[in-house]
Amino acid sequence: MNRWATVVLILLNVALPEMARSTAPFTPAAIRLPSGFRISLFADNLSGARSMAPGPEGILFVGTRKAGRVYALVDRDRDFKADRTIVLAKGLRMPNGVAFRNGHLYVAEVHRVIRFENIVDNLNPGAPYIVVNDSLPADRRHGWKFVRFGPDGKLYVPVGAPCNVCREQDQRFATIMRMNADGSGLEVFAEGVRNSVGFDWHPQTRELWFTDNGRDWLGDDFPPDELNHAPSSGRHFGFPYVHGNTVPDPVFGDQAPQREFDPPAQELAPHAAALGMRFYTGNMFPPEYRGQIFIAEHGS
Fold first, then answer.
1. Which residues are registered as beta bridge partners of 61?
2. To pair with 85 at 20 to 30 A between CA atoms, which of 79, 131, 259, 264?
3. Do the beta carbons of residue 105 and residue 60 sit within 8 Å?
4. Dihedrals phi, psi of 233, to nearest 5 degrees
5. pLDDT tens digit string along 227-251?
6. Are strands 113-116 and 130-133 parallel, antiparallel or unpaired?
7. Does 240 sit behind a cis peptide bond, omega within 30 degrees of 0 on the bond before it?
8. Which strands sit side by side in the sheet containing 49-54, from one edge to the other?
């Protein structure tokens, strides 16, 4: 049984009323599920819950985009309900991304990555942290970051475009970067990525797949958002020159460099605003779900 297969879905849906700008109280019963599925509330009263990372001993770490907080949700008795909510940090700068590795919690702010060392032994409000790397761009637009460790042991960090559509001189923008766990070796892994806030690695091939949110102001039905596949580093996924399956941008399309762009593995709905994706590797859901990709879409 994959314990977190259910918990992830529960927490993602906590934010649904806020996303829809609804004032109605949230209840799990409002969510429509396939036959045979159940849903229950794992935790509530989390201001701005955004990204999640499972840790050991029934702990789930939660980052926020606007609230400036990082939470630890503790489920010691493993009953799929948080027994305790701890505010590990306040006043951070869009601490959206959280990743757990080798006992430490990594948190990505807009301009830096910090690390809460031996976090299980320091589950206290105002837990101490160290700065791992503070050399990331500080632009807030598309600056919030989803982070995750890859099979190569490196921390992958996207840097969104600081605009709707533009071509920046700073080559770090509109990329997915990666660094060693100690913050060294920061490098660009993929280019032409407008704003990715979710990625995962195929469980067999260990190749990167990621979502990318397309530009605005070309209408309600264009351009598509994207699901992309990056089997190796050094690839370019088209932004700002092309969108979806090689549709030229009306401003930058004729300025494209002489190089090959990788088209999306699949086009997603325009303005779907995917916030996360995962390959399903558990055994709780029926066989047809196994090995498939779940994508959480925010929508405009």
1. 53, 72
2. 131
3. no
4. -80, 170
5. 999 999 999 999 999 999 988 999 9
6. antiparallel
7. yes
8. 49-54, 59-64, 70-74, 84-89
CB atoms within 10 A of CB 265: 13
CB 106 within 8 A of CB 98: yes
Asked if 158 and 197 touch (Cβ cutoff 8 Å), the reply is yes
Q: For 251-282, what is each residue's pLDDT tens digit?
A: 999 999 988 999 999 999 999 999 889 999 99
Structure tokens belonging to residue 279? 């390959």
Residue type for position 283:
N
For 170, counting Cβ atoms within 10 Å of its Cβ (0-12 exposed, 13-18 middle, 19+ buried), the class is exposed
Q: Quick one: what percent of the chain has pLDDT higher than 90?
A: 79
Q: Hey, how many other C-beta atoms are within 10 angstroms of the C-beta on 153?
A: 11
In whole angstroms, what is the distance from residue 98 CA to residue 75 CA? 18
Which segments within 102-246 are labelled E, that is strand?
A: 104-108, 113-116, 130-133, 148-149, 155-159, 175-179, 187-191, 199-201, 208-212, 224-230, 235-236, 242-243
pLDDT value at residue 299: 83
Whole-angstrom distance, CA of residue 144 vs CA of residue 150: 19
Nearest to 279 by CA among 261, 265, 269: 265
Return d(Cα 187, Cα 179) in angstroms, integer: 6
Rounded to an integer, what distance in angstroms lies between the CA atom of residue 57 and that of residue 70?
A: 18
Average pLDDT of adjacent 10-residue blocks, the chain of 300 residues: 39 39 67 89 90 95 95 94 95 97 97 97 95 95 95 97 95 97 98 96 97 94 95 97 92 92 95 93 93 90
